[in-house]
Amino acid sequence: MIELSVLDEIIYYILRPEFFVPVIFPGLITSMILLLITIWAERKIAAKVQLRFGPLLISPRIGGLLQLIADLLKFVFSEIIVPARAFKALYILGPALLLSTSLLPLVVIPISTSIHYSLYVIGNNGAYVPIYVNFSLIAALALSMLTPIMVIMTAWATNNRFAVVGALREGFLMITYDVLLIMSAFSMAIIYGGVDLFGFVNFQSSHYLGILMNPISAFVFLVAMLLGSSRYPFEIVEADTEIVIGPYTEYSGLLFILTMGGSYIKTFVYSILFSVIFLGGWLPFSGGIGALFTVFKAIIILLFSVFLRSVYGRYRIDQALRGAWKLMFLLAIISMVLSFIWRWFLVA
């Protein structure tokens, strides 16, 4: 009985959202697994669409996993070369901070209703989330906007002109996608009548999904998400034809994996936020199954974002900025007007 009691306590603390969400699911461990799966899927989808025979023909019986394992081993065991003119402390610390800040919004994004274990109720105010705040939308957006600062700091630490150019591109784009994300997210907050993400899902359970009520807002959010995470066709920060790989030009080995992973993980976090705001989050389930369903929806959005690499070329920075301010900004304003109409209709 004592051993069972100890086991109960261990399971209880593992399932607590303060540990489970940021570390296990959908946190660091799940994100790293999804990082590998996403890179594999991106290669396979692009190879299929563009008839790239190399990725298609490598170990076809096991889905090309040998190439993925070979690349992983290559990066893990590659030498980490620190440039002589780099700011060494920030150079080494930067990629870890970039990865950490990419995961930070998960601490305020609810992924399900409370998960019950034994006699314990885990969660806050009915939401399974590490830190429950009734302004979680604002908190999630604010935390997501720390990542570009880490990108700029990481590039500056290398003391490389090509890395700095890539970081400046991030600075240009940061203002653009921040404005679009905020406007599209708050247009939904107008409909839902608050800025609590848990309330967003509760509202959708008794009305319609957010993407049905305001598809324009969903489209603007999706484009801003692609801009913010440097997914195609907005892989502008890392333009290999002009600036090698942008802010991460001087990184190698395990540090390069961390910098590359930050972009994919940020896309995954934005996808979770998209699923909560527009796709009903964990609905129609609750508890543990609901958490899985939230992440399942996010994975669909994630795979769609990497699919775009196969069908779109990279935009120039002037094209992206012109399209964002002349078209997407106008759509964001229209989405807010549509939200006011919906709110008047719902209240009336």
Explain what you see.
This protein has one domain (2-347). The longest helix is centred in the middle third of the chain and has 32 residues, at 161-192. It is mostly helical and 348 residues long. The chain is globular, with a radius of gyration of 21 Å. The protein has 16 helices and two strands. The chain has a two-stranded antiparallel ribbon with strand order 1-2. The protein has helices at 2-15, 17-24, 28-50, 53-57, 65-77, 88-103, 136-144, 147-158, 161-192, 197-206, 210-213, 215-228, 240-243, 253-278, 287-311, 317-347; strands at residues 113-117, 120-127. Residues 118-122 have low confidence and may be disordered.
| β-strand amount | under 5%
Mean pLDDT, nearest integer? 85
Radius of gyration: 21 Å
Low-pLDDT segments, ≥5 res: 118-122
Number of helical runs?
A: 16
Question: What percent of residues adopt helix (DSSP H or I)?
Answer: over 70%
Question: In angstroms, what separates the terminal alpha carbons?
Answer: 59 Å
Indicate the structural class: mainly alpha
Task: Describe the structure concisely.
The protein is mainly α. The protein is built from 16 helices and two strands.
List the helices and strands and how they pair.
Layout: H1 2-15, H2 17-24, H3 28-50, H4 53-57, H5 65-77, H6 88-103, E1 113-117, E2 120-127, H7 136-144, H8 147-158, H9 161-192, H10 197-206, H11 210-213, H12 215-228, H13 240-243, H14 253-278, H15 287-311, H16 317-347
Antiparallel strand pairs: 1-2
Helix pairs in contact: 3-14, 3-15, 5-14, 6-8, 6-14, 8-9, 9-12, 9-16, 12-14, 12-16, 14-15
